[in-house]
């Protein structure tokens, strides 16, 4: 099997990770491209003691660590608040957090990717979560019609140090909630209590405020149509708490309006 055939199923995911790590899709893709070119040229080898996916991320990290800022566009980085915000968090901690919470690697696999031991990975994750949460505390609106799920999400939000300033079960309740208190983040289901649409509620909210949105839904196909701009943050029910926590941190960390506030 050719190198491309072995790695092809994993490329969309390493691109997603590179984007989250760097805060920019073009920059992330640049690192992925250089890693693939190094493999194709024989300058790097996929470790044989790792699965293909773990090995690909391992090589990506070797390239990322070795090149540092050499691949960045100087002008873009200079004016990019996300790049400056990334510098405030230990790179190693950020990597460990994203590998496990976003990409679903076990601490043992993340340790292989980063060439450290699993205990170090667990420590780095805790450090990253603490740093991110302390910097990005905000007011959150939850749009969810199932009471138990809404309560679970609210508990996760509060664990991260954020404040839940509104909950809504319908489109009208959501719009009314933002008219009374502007949120810094919206967590939204798609199918709501009265048959109304969480997608429509979010669209109406975004007409008024530039706010990051995370969709948490059992119907991801309603958003992943390929026919319109798709949401960056989409979590499928049933969800893992750590996945929601990771998405919250990423949504707040990279959203342009949040970057301007923290600059």
Automatic annotation (TrEMBL):
Stored InterPro entries: Bact_response_regulator, CheY-like_superfamily, PhyR_sigma2, PhyR_sigma4, RNA_pol_sigma_r3/r4-like, Sig_resp-reg_PhyR, Sig_transdc_resp-reg_receiver, WH-like_DNA-bd_sf
Modified residues (4-aspartylphosphate): 189
Ranges for domain Response regulatory: 139-252
Pfam family, one: Response_reg
Keywords from the UniProt entry: Phosphoprotein, Two-component regulatory system
Protein name stated in the entry: Response regulator
